[in-house]
Structure prediction request, 386 residues.
Amino acid sequence: MHPFRAFIHNYEYLPEQVWHSIEPHLTVHNYDAEYPILKEGQICRHLYFLESGILRYFINNEGLEICKFFTQAPYCFTSQYSFLNQVRASENITSITLSVIWSLPRDIAFEFLKEPSWAAFIRKLTNEVQYLTEELLLASQSKTAEDRYKLMLTEESELITKVPMKYIASFLGIAPQSLSRIRKNVSLSHLLT
Amino acid sequence: MHPFRAFIHNYEYLPEQVWHSIEPHLTVHNYDAEYPILKEGQICRHLYFLESGILRYFINNEGLEICKFFTQAPYCFTSQYSFLNQVRASENITSITLSVIWSLPRDIAFEFLKEPSWAAFIRKLTNEVQYLTEELLLASQSKTAEDRYKLMLTEESELITKVPMKYIASFLGIAPQSLSRIRKNVSLSHLLT
Prediction:
């Protein structure tokens, strides 16, 4: 089964004929690490499915890159506001590792909302993304950078091993040196327990 | 026009017959300030429309209330994860001011997704909530509490006048004393410009 269809089935069963109408519109891309999939100022015209790899979303804040979040395969992604409103994106999406990505044109993604199964998949996925964003917001409001790093260690251990420390530090809103200190503390407390 | 229908029309036109099918399921509530609309541990069984008033979402974090965000009328709200998955809410929703709220049972909100106009309204609203949450996350990652407070002053000036300072401090992730200092700085810099 196509990896995108298998992913959709985690949310909603997509009947054969709906899938066969969508599939011809998919294009596959093999990107190197650090490939800019979307740059700030461009208009996002696709819904993407990340079959393998890891991405980072970031913005430029007075010359400093701020990492918003990471997307780890398999998952869907887009630059939501730009995609929905066809305005210039204020964010960048870049691959961190080698990535295999499928793109679906925006008009097709919208056209198929008339199909209840596709509409239900999009609704459930959007709800999940909303929930995950809310969780990140809550963590940034209620936890220290050290506690958030420890949470990533337990809940996203694979991500931690593959993402350069400078991006994780940026995501946690701290300097790379502070993250080094936190990592030393965490290693030390592991040795002591 | 019913205020909820007028609100929906900001996103999508709802035909007369769809509205007349939904309307009988709406119940109005007049709540005092500090009324607990949803408590942590309860299951959220309604989609709500806040006709007037202001709400706060908060969680209890080791005895400390952390304010996630505010909802200002007119807007829709629910405890999304609890509402969608019918599990116990991990958050509280409480009125800050006198509030007029309409509730719609969850099964009705779902049943009407078969109506394209209602489905489009829900989709657009969910996308907007996702965008706003992402903006809050980005602000918490890239701005100081002082800059975020200044942003609230310009973009949410009405909210600032109506919400007790202790809740704004909690939302900004700082102590009330720190917010007092920031407010003094801001007043002083206003006097100097």
